[in-house]
Design a protein that fits this description.
94 residues; YefM-like fold; 37% helix
């Protein structure tokens, strides 16, 4: 995979071209000075958005995590979701 380094201003000036490069398979590193601030790479088409809970649990176990999803976890998640039913405010560019 080709890796392209560009400045923040270049990325902002021609984002459509940046995405075209990504669609073609390149990884684009957006930099401020000599520091990377973002990496844009092609999405893995075989993987949907996010990670499955089972994958997260497997990963945590592989790292030796002792976290436990107790019986109250589901009710905590439902409460969190219910408390934020309003739609997210879309960014101004949408």
């Amino acid at each position: 995979m080709a890796v392209i380094h560009i400045s923040e201003s270049e990325a902002a000036r021609d984002f459509a071209s940046l995405l075209a490069q990504v669609r073609a398979g390149a990884e684009v590193v957006i930099e401020s000075g000599h520091h990377a601030v973002a990496v844009v790479r092609p999405a893995d088409p075989g993987r949907g958005p996010g990670r499955l809970l089972s994958e997260s649990i497997t990963s945590a176990e592989a790292r030796g995590s002792t976290a436990t999803l107790d019986a109250e976890f589901a009710s905590d998640m439902e409460a969190a979701i219910a408390s934020h039913r309003e739609p997210l405010k879309a960014p101004e560019w949408d």
